[in-house]
UniProtKB/TrEMBL annotation:
It comes from Rhabdobacter roseus. Residues 62-92 form a coiled coil. InterPro entries: Homeodomain-like_sf, Transposase_8, WH-like_DNA-bd_sf. One of its GO terms (molecular function) is DNA binding. This is Putative transposase. One of its GO terms (biological process) is DNA transposition. Keywords: Coiled coil. It comes from the Bacteria.
Length: 100
């Protein structure tokens, strides 16, 4: 089978056809693999119509910065959580000291 790029509309039509007539008949008619149908269906469920758009390569530098940003956000979240726990413990110990 030769490699072919499908538009979002073509993918949606093929998915609709597969649902109506069955995957085996659809893959024979269009000359594609069943795995492609399942992948498109998953992409549609997770990302909607935008999930079916053609994959575009992300700049490695941009991806590195995105990962670094994510790591920093996690670090800040962990620090905020630790600070909130310490403040809560401090409030509890102060309230015990006043009453006891």
């Amino acid at each position: 089978m030769s490699r072919r790029k499908f538009s979002v509309e073509e993918k949606l039509a093929i998915l609709k056809e597969a649902e109506a007539t069955g995957i085996a008949q659809t893959i024979r008619r269009h000359g594609i693999y069943a795995k492609m149908i399942y992948r498109w269906r998953d992409q549609l469920e997770t990302g909607g119509r935008d999930g079916l758009k053609a994959y575009q390569r992300v700049d490695p530098e941009l991806r590195r910065l995105q990962l670094e940003n994510l790591a920093l956000k996690k670090l800040v979240a962990e620090k905020e959580l630790a600070l909130a726990v310490k403040e809560e413990l401090l409030k509890k110990t102060q309230s015990r000291n006043k009453t006891g």
